[in-house]
């Protein structure tokens, strides 16, 4: 209101003046982020998930279908993280956005190992392959990733800083709990229903058999 009155006073004093007085304060720099925070969130999360899709698809042996299932699980983790942020009164800002991007990277650890073990398993049906993946890789994911991260996060609970309490302890604790539950429980169920039916081991065995058959025919 004050800036508007000053602007009108200057324009009345000089009719040719287009000068406009606007309020400014140091905290305005931090509040400006909220003008584009949702757009920035959508762009950063989309680019991160697409990068994970390409990386997992290539590292899994050009298996982009399994990579898609991994990314689908990660998207579910992100959606649950938004729900946890609402429950714990964590607002979406630059700090929480960085944590959400980090959530995508951390979630790969919970999902990629299970999916990779499923893709190389040669146990027949999808259900048996999912059981094999959980039996042979589940303990490593639980003890090597989940427990170690929880022990490190618990230390943040004793911090006197509100920043560490809200944006790191609460968010990281939810990342570990939600990521572990999705990677060890939800992902094997998804793989047992709609996972790839043709494994890398079967593909390699069939390629080797075709190669040997081709050589035998040439020798004969």
UniProtKB/TrEMBL annotation:
<dbReference type="GO" id="GO:0030299">
    <property type="term" value="P:intestinal cholesterol absorption"/>
</dbReference>
<keyword id="KW-0753">Steroid metabolism</keyword>
<dbReference type="GO" id="GO:0015918">
    <property type="term" value="P:sterol transport"/>
</dbReference>
<keyword id="KW-0813">Transport</keyword>
<dbReference type="GO" id="GO:0012505">
    <property type="term" value="C:endomembrane system"/>
</dbReference>
<keyword id="KW-0472">Membrane</keyword>
<dbReference type="GO" id="GO:0005886">
    <property type="term" value="C:plasma membrane"/>
</dbReference>
<dbReference type="GO" id="GO:0042632">
    <property type="term" value="P:cholesterol homeostasis"/>
</dbReference>
<protein>
    <submittedName>
        <fullName>Niemann-Pick C1</fullName>
    </submittedName>
</protein>
<keyword id="KW-1015">Disulfide bond</keyword>
<feature type="transmembrane region" description="Helical">
    <location>
        <begin position="69"/>
        <end position="88"/>
    </location>
</feature>
<keyword id="KW-0153">Cholesterol metabolism</keyword>
<keyword id="KW-1133">Transmembrane helix</keyword>
<keyword id="KW-0732">Signal</keyword>
<dbReference type="GO" id="GO:0015485">
    <property type="term" value="F:cholesterol binding"/>
</dbReference>
<comment type="similarity">
    <text>Belongs to the patched family.</text>
</comment>
<dbReference type="GO" id="GO:0008203">
    <property type="term" value="P:cholesterol metabolic process"/>
</dbReference>
<feature type="transmembrane region" description="Helical">
    <location>
        <begin position="171"/>
        <end position="194"/>
    </location>
</feature>
<keyword id="KW-0443">Lipid metabolism</keyword>
<keyword id="KW-1207">Sterol metabolism</keyword>
<keyword id="KW-0325">Glycoprotein</keyword>
<feature type="transmembrane region" description="Helical">
    <location>
        <begin position="133"/>
        <end position="159"/>
    </location>
</feature>
<keyword id="KW-0812">Transmembrane</keyword>
<feature type="transmembrane region" description="Helical">
    <location>
        <begin position="94"/>
        <end position="112"/>
    </location>
</feature>
<feature type="transmembrane region" description="Helical">
    <location>
        <begin position="42"/>
        <end position="62"/>
    </location>
</feature>
